[in-house]
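Format is sequence with structure; example below:
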Amino acid sequence: MTDKQRGGAGKECVACREEIRGAAVICRHCGSSQKNDIWEKTATALKWLGGVVTVISLLAGMVTLMGYYRDWRERRDAVAELLYAADWLARTRNYSRAWQMNEKALGLVPGSAEAFDGRLRLAKLWLRDFRVNKKDADGVLNDVTDVLFRGLRGAGKNESAEILAHIGWAQATRVKNYMPTVIDVDAVFEEALRANPENVYANAMLGHWILMRLGASVKNIDSARSKFAIAVKNPDKRAFARELQFSGLIRHSQGRDDEVERAALGALLQESFSMMKNSEPKPAESFRRKILDAYGTMGRAEHVEAAVALMPPADHLAAHAWLMDGLDYSRPRALAQAKYLRARLTEELGEKEKALGLYQSLLKESKAAKELNGRVDQAIARLSGKLPERALARSYLNDPMGKKDPWRFHMDTLSHFDPRWTPANFDQAIDYFENALSRPLKALPDPKLSELIQSLPAKLDRIRKVVRQGDKIQRLNAYTSDFSVGHHENARLNLLRLGHIHVRALTAGGKLDKAIAQLGDMKKAVDSLNERWTEMRAWIAFEFARAYAIRAGLSKSDADAANALKYLKMALYSDGFSDEIATWDEIKGDVFKSLRDDPAYRELIRGR
């Protein structure tokens, strides 16, 4: 019988949902009360609500933790990407941009050990290859130095030595860029060596600092070499140490006194030989050129004899050949000097015949320095017992003046001297012909005067070609040591001085029209030059006055007399006029007798 049959209409239990009698107070199945109690319902509802809240709280906490984790991971990945970019930029030597990337990484994670270590490495690398705009140098050096000082905390001895060395190098870099130092450079390097006496950077940077700052002396060269000797022991960082070593020594190999230059050259040669034996890479091409140039200024070989005594000749030859290998060393003077050194070292080896052949081959070098030519001539005389013919021939520079036939001696000088120079023999020739042509008006015998007039145009053309060559080089802004601004100026002046002789010779020979035409060409040439040629302008004006005055005396031309007076005033009122151009006795003399009736001329010479 069912509950419905026993007790009328049935119902479901409020708890287990089984069927019970409609009047039942207690469920016979689960024992639950069937009373509809509001408080009980409320309690039940609260229990469910608490469970739901707990679940929601757990879910919210999990979401928050997931957000924190995701943010941390994103920052970590961003820092890694920025540091990778910074490393890549540093490898391409874009240190400024690399520094910015590192700063961004530290901005994302201020306490990132990886970012700080990366910035410390970058600071040291940037200092070793410092390249910034001059206006930014001070700020960059300050920032880099701050990072280095922070890196000292917790650093071991070797790391401390390295950091301190770079702090000192930052100050040395300030000195190179003409900025004041902010700490005692020597004290910092000493502290670095106390931390680790064998540290590569401390020794290399201090060695360079000694050569850079403490002055040019043999003692300082020796002191620096002792530091570099330690620095180059480390094969991994040897290239950097060598760069500082060679750049510092090369600075002392030129522009110092002979003792210092020779000590620097000796050190460079010995270190080069050591590098060759150790199969190290050759120094930079620019370094090798400067080492080879250190044997003599402009190829004059003044340090060759001292250099020969620095090393055994076989080692010296090997080191020299190693430095020359693969080098485009085509400058004539420098190449001649290199050949002379090889000949000299071959002689030291005792190979006299071979050395003589090498010396004699240098006789063909047309552009070798005259000082080197003298050394070659003496070497040939030393090995063969006689000077080469060229040593006995005229140089047209400072040869003893021939007393037997001074005319021919000076004519030969004008035909053969180098117009780029103003040698003593040229000055002597100009003085000789000026004296012969100036006082009296015609002092040369007719045959010699005719020869002079006929030969001077060719001599002038020879100089004029050199002047034109210089004009072309000037337009191209391509002056070199073989044809410099000084060579150009010398050729111009030599052309005008010899032109003066030509004008005087034409005047003395009665060829006044040609003399005036020649002066016109000279005036045009001088007018194209700068204001420094005032003396030459005054001289040309006086020569015009002189030629016109003589022609006026012959032609009785008023125009010639007027021109003579015009140019005479122009000369006298010029800033460049002096009694070296003309004296008042000459101005009042017979040359200007055609002007004596002119009131303006008489007023000009009144009281003189």
